[in-house]
Design a protein that fits this description.
- The structure is a homotetramer.
- The first copy, chain A, has about 450 residues and is of the alpha+beta class.
- Chain A folds into two domains: about 10-245, 4-Layer Sandwich (Glutamine Phosphoribosylpyrophosphate, subunit 1, domain 1); about 265-450, 3-Layer(aba) Sandwich (Rossmann fold), CATH 3.40.50.2020.
- Chain A has helices at about 25-35, 60-65, 65-75, 120-125, 140-150, 155-165, 210-215, 250-255, 270-285, 300-310, 335-340, 345-350, 365-375, 410, 415-420, 435-440, 450; strands spanning about 10-15, 40-50, 50-60, 80-85, 100-105, 105-115, 170-175, 180-185, 195-200, 200-205, 215-220, 225-230, 235-240, 250, 265, 265-270, 290-295, 315-320, 345, 355-360, 380-385, 425-430, 445.
- In chain A, the strands form six sheets. A seven-stranded antiparallel sheet of chain A has the order 3-2-4-1-10-9-11.
- In chain A, a hairpin with a 2-residue loop joins strand 9 (about 195-200) and strand 10 (about 200-205).
- In chain A, helix 4 packs across helix 5 (about 140-150).
- The first copy, chain A, starts with 9 loop residues before the first strand and ends in a 9-residue tail after the last helix.
- Chains in contact: A-B, A-C, B-D, C-D.
- At the A-C interface, strand 5 and helix 5 of A face strand 5 and helix 5 of C.
Chain lengths: ~450, ~450, ~450, ~450
């Protein structure tokens, strides 16, 4: 990947609607809308009158699911689907989800968004019972635990309650059996999961933009610790643990992961970013001629900054949209080229100007520094960097790819040092105490472990 | 294609630099920057110490040219490359450019951007001399004419002058021989073509953004009717016909075809679009709460409109960027879905608002109407459509895909009817007399045939 | 498949030799030699200094293993490999072998030739312990049973002895750990498995022709019920059960499955077929002008028939060797075409002649009948069909694809009826009492269940 | 290629039958039967009610023409097809045939088997008329010449007569226009070409085995110098030049190129090979125990040798039939492996025996020497090599790949030296004066240039 950003693991979608829909097609459009949550691989499982068919591969949704592939899955009354960014370096194909489980105690397909922080301990326990793992995915671990509990449980929901008592960390699960669809969100509510109403049933998705794409009406979010079951008789719900734990939605869902047009746990994602831009303008007033955003994730906050400061908003870059994973890295002389190939600064907009450059976050800082230098080469008189999140200081254990503080520029350097390293005339970050206000109206508390080092549940040693 | 836009045929690039560059790699990055001018196929020819190697296929630059493909072409001191949108319905592979000509009178590679309006007449003449055509491309016709003239010419440039006297219409040609690179622009200057200086030689490109991508400095545009030769001894130039004809740069290069960060014949493309937005605001003042642009081509003018009117600029849509040619068309109920899958309106931004929607042009009008309706469904109180070009009334014969007026909504309907058809509360087009001012500073006259029906040269009956 | 033959499930190969060989390459050549035992998919696992790498896909050995694929596997000191014909209709990819097992109790790769007749019972037992199956392969079942036993076993060999006590049916297993290679043959000896000595170690293969292909010297066959371990200190062996059971080598290994140049359990395969031809000539003398064989499996017996009878041997057919799985079935008028496309009779050889046609076996009889008719159309005066095995009357449960008697022509019709159905002037089968003499010198008894209906172990109801 | 054989360039097929056939499918089966004449690429052109569609690619017929590919070609009333071995090292795709010519003077598809010996002179002539060549194929040259003549000819047949007067060398041409199919054989008759009658029309093919594959009845061969036209009104014929030249059928069509089941110019190919074996037995009597043939091309002659000598015929080798062009060359120690991987000697058949080994021809001798050594390693007591053609001494200019005498072992060594080099106990070649008798009944004279150095027409300097 060219741009150094934090990456989310996955996105999930499911639908149960026996009014004659094409559940394979619904999953296709919904996953296409969730593609930003994972571009490495994707999969769909369809319930076709009790027979579960599954298809998937590494690649984008539009590459993997040709018209024939969708037809082969059959229409069906229910489906679940998954897009995936690969946190671990294992082969994408083996880690494909949904996972299909065929067992004397029942058949189901399962997919998951999140990461268990006590994976290692739970896996060893299962292996010592004779279980053989084929992958290193949480989805397989959860399937194995479920089957073990089902040997002595009355139903799947019952087994789920038992394993939820053991699992630490983030999971937003969808499980499809031959007669229903079950959605589960971990008791902390790390990852988003919402419910929509379709013409004849219900849909679940990581983000509401997926509901929009299939014309489903947003109903509500799945609550932390809630098990929601959709079937022929409608939906029912069991909630557990929610009084025992403090909720901890990942704040980066607002800052970077989710799509601006999604509404997560009651708040518009675009709105939070717009507000983060406003706060930056209010907290750190700057004399400048133009405000520009780093495409695409800095644009919302840049417009907010412009609105609050009165400094005109401008198009700072043209981003080459013909991205493909096959794109060859340039061998040209200087390293700015790696960015320049994708992002060409608009000389006419920045030449001789004092520029406010808004970015959503700084991880390693490499890309951001190159972007600042591109602006200078294009003739910018001053570059004032404004970051719409606090400094990123600590690793994450709940489904992103920042597993060590060594990779974080803010862990090793002060604000002033970062500004110098990135060649900016000034640099400011969103104040941590602004986060709550930024997402005002959100029904959950936040996990801010990456800013504070305080995590809401067990973390591995 | 999902969005009904006018389409340009091609983009070209060439480089001659014997200071040790990798000419295959340069062509790769330059074509990647020109990808917006043609996504159907692409090709590169490299001069490796006198041996011309050629490679290409249907597909995007980043798909066709893998690292191995670039290596197989060899580094070389010169190259030419081509991206292509298919105007004709023939097989993409047969029409691949550059074209390699191996003949007892010499070997050269050739590629072209444009369309000859007297193709049919010229082809028949050649066939009656015993020539067999393998394709319907202008490039093959021009190659055949060149070879015929070369049988009695002292040099390639001489033969070029002779055939330029016969050819009517648009062509921006690049010809690479074993010892030099020749660039030719038709006497009307229909299509852009510019010259850049590299560390040890010269480069030619349809647009200056391609020069940026390889760190070449913009030198000047190739003049209408000019033949520029780059070789070991530098560049030389012959200009002919330019006093005989009136220049006629395609105005759509500013309105839609070229990339905003390119400078065409002396004028910034972004700047012309920004100004078109300003003019719309000045000529047709509107009471509204927010200005939004249709991504991506309406964004520049929307920002201009906002700046001139004082109405705040907003993000109206999220555009799904995971586009692929394999994307399946939805079978869902209403036709708005075909647009909605790619473009989700931001409810928070438009709900209850009076919206100014800026689009760059209207061809059939189908997409635009759907976009207006999406805004209404998202809760927009009013939608005022502003189009940053005059009504499109007549076909084009010079390298675009609008070959019949039957396809044009403005040919059949009045402005008021169009507004009603597209469900807009009001609609206004850029005034035709604003075009010249919009591109103020351009050194050439314009072809405005599509607006006026007056064409600067021969057109087929 | 075009020709109706009985199909064998698989072939296996393994090598352990730490004298600096390339174990991936050895497996490649050996599997290429075993390709006739399975053309649907193939796989290789290599032990590269304790790391086990695995590769495979559906397709032929020469298609799946490109030069890069072999290099990626790394050289290694040990490998096992597998070719597969798909008995079950599940997706080929999921059933790929070798299977890699990564478990807290150890890591190993495993592959198998054979079929367990009590699969269903053993699987259910394991599922009720919480095991989840991903495939329907015996290999996965055996892996799961092994892991369960290993939780309380001192070593893999010990666990193997325990599970061998439970498994009924055919299995020739190869198991590769980080430090050794284990070969196991079921107590009945259904499928062949032999040992070769390489320059610095040992190899195991389903047939001796695979040893020839890598220059290994044939050492001996693995005995029924034997566990042979090859490691750095040489080979060692445990034999169990062999006194409890009667040995039962599949007689079809001689009749059809094995390659003519292999020596199975002490007897040359070509030799047995040649003798079967001789016996047919002796037992059923016929007046004829020429003896021809159905390519390729009837050729050996035809030459034997010619030698014993004195009737000249002739080339009866040209077989098109450009076979590919992509070959399209013809839609032409009569059904003989399906055979004719691959097999063109030599008119000059058979026209006006009394022909003895030798085939190795008759299953459905469809192909054989078409071949007889092709000979008649080519002008044969008489066609006398001689089959070098007894009538095929009962299904097989030990690794072939004849799972029902419904598919067998001999189950429903008398010899005379078959002759008529196949349009032969006369038909004779090898006498069942000739089988033992045919394979004289073989150290094992035979399973002749398909001829007699008497099976040597448990069969499913 | 592993085995050093002389290679033929191509095979052609055409059909005209307006009784409702599927001409694409007919071409498919016929080319499949002609696959032995060229495995590098293949192509089919179909006349679908006057529209000519064309398809093809590098690869085998069964790989290139999937069911969809055949359907896309449409049924049609006429087709021509081509299989190709690549004599020149140019890219296979550019040299694909049939070639489609679209010209103001008419549209036709053309394919060819053969090689013009005055190609260079004819090409230069055309280039100096302004023609541009895209390939180095005879087919393109012939097309260009045809078009030049058609500018002043009354019809295609007339133009053909004119160019036949200029062309030297081998050509068996098929030309398909919108209303007829024309077959042309060069005046010497170098390459075979025969006519078949179908249910409602006529077919042409390089060999009669292709007629068998589509149920066409063999009618007669096209005569040297004959132009045969098949159309709605039946067939007509013009014959020219046949009295001016001596006919010169390539003798290697009998020895090696053609399929044994074909009848070429009146004689069965199998029969000629069988007779060559007989002659070897009669001319060079040998004491031996078994006669074996090198698969597949030495088998026919070996059976003939056995019949004439009374020495029993045996299966000497098992040939691995899973051939694919992707097969990796072994890196194993000794070079015999390159042959052994494909050809395993039958130890039981040759051990301790005096063996007569029959091969059809010796070019470089490399493979043959390895085969002899494999037999010795397998225990053969003596190996007597018998070659069913005379020593190969001179290059060929008429469509095979032996373009220099440097590659020929017999050019540099005496018979005795060759025997020693190949490690044979004795070696004998077919006597040159036996050739005529071998193909007794053939209506044409022979080109024996490769044995005698005397060529029947112009050869390049």
């Amino acid at each position: 990947m060219m741009f150094d950003k934090i990456h989310e693991e996955c996105g999930v979608f499911g639908i149960f609607d026996d009014s004659g829909i094409n559940a394979a097609e619904s999953a296709y459009y919904a996953l296409y809308a969730l593609q930003h949550r994972g571009q490495e691989s994707c999969g769909i499982a369809v319930n076709d009158s009790g027979t579960i068919r599954i298809a998937g591969d590494s690649g984008l949704v539009s590459e993997v699911f040709t018209e024939d592939a969708i037809k082969n899955l059959a229409a069906g009354c229910a489906s679940i689907g998954h897009v995936r960014y690969g946190v671990f370096s294992t082969a994408a194909k083996e880690e494909l989800q949904p996972l299909l489980v065929t067992h004397v105690k029942g058949k189901f397909a399962l997919c998951n968004n999140g990461s268990l922080s006590n994976y290692k301990e739970l896996r060893e326990q299962l292996e010592l019972n004779g279980f053989i793992f084929h992958t290193e995915s949480d989805a397989e671990l959860i399937s194995g635990m479920l089957i073990h509990e089902m040997l002595e449980s009355s139903c799947l929901e019952d087994a789920l309650l038992r394993i939820m008592a053991k699992m630490e960390g983030a999971y937003s699960l969808l499980i499809m059996t031959d007669d229903r669809l079950i959605a589960v969100r971990d008791p902390w509510g790390f990852r988003p999961l919402c419910i929509g109403r379709t013409s004849g049933g219900y849909a679940f998705a990581s983000e509401s933009c997926a509901l929009d794409s299939i014309h489903a009406d947003f109903l509500r979010d799945v609550a932390p610790g809630e098990i929601v079951t959709a079937g022929k008789t409608g939906i029912s719900s069991i909630t557990a643990f929610c009084d025992l734990k403090q909720t901890a939605l990942c704040i980066f869902e607002y800052i970077y992961f989710s799509r601006p047009d999604s509404v997560v746990d009651g708040v518009s994602v675009h709105h939070t970013r717009h507000k983060a831009g406003q706060f930056l303008a209010e907290d750190y007033p700057t004399e400048a001629d133009v405000v520009i955003g780093v495409p695409d994730s800095g644009i919302d906050a840049a417009i907010g900054y412009s609105a609050a400061s009165g400094i005109p908003y401008g198009l700072g870059f043209v981003k080459n949209k013909y991205i493909g994973r096959t794109f060859i890295q340039p061998n040209l002389a200087d390293r700015e080229d790696k960015v320049r190939i994708k992002l060409n600064p608009m000389k006419n907009v920045v030449k001789g100007k004092r520029v406010v450059l808004v970015d959503d976050s700084i991880v390693r800082g490499t890309t951001c520094g190159r972007i600042v230098r591109l602006l200078r080469q294009a003739g910018a008189a001053e570059v004032h960097l404004r970051v719409s999140s606090p400094p990123f200081l600590h690793p994450c254990y709940f489904g992103t790819d920042i597993d060590s503080e060594e990779k974080l520029i803010a862990h090793k350097h002060s604000k002033e040092e970062i500004g110098k390293l990135l060649d900016a005339d000034s640099i400011e970050f969103l104040r941590a105490d602004r986060l709550e206000d930024m997402a005002k109206g959100c029904r959950l508390g936040f996990c801010t472990g990456c800013f504070t080092g305080k995590y809401p549940c067990y973390i591995p040693k």
